[in-house]
Design goal:
There is one protein chain. Helix content is about 90%, strand content about 0%. It has one helix and no strands. The longest helix has about 35 residues, at about 5-40.
Length: about 40
């Protein structure tokens, strides 16, 4: 296995994790905003 493939795999894994985390955070913010609107 060559190093380029390893680096690519690691970077892809990291960016996927980052995207998943960002999506999760955005979802949390959306839910919080909705609850804030409901209870104001």
């Amino acid at each position: 296995m060559n190093l380029n493939a390893v680096f690519t795999a690691v970077i892809n894994k990291k960016s996927k994790a980052k995207k998943a985390r960002n999506a999760f955070i955005q979802q949390k913010y959306k839910e919080r905003n909705i609850t804030n609107r409901l209870f104001k």
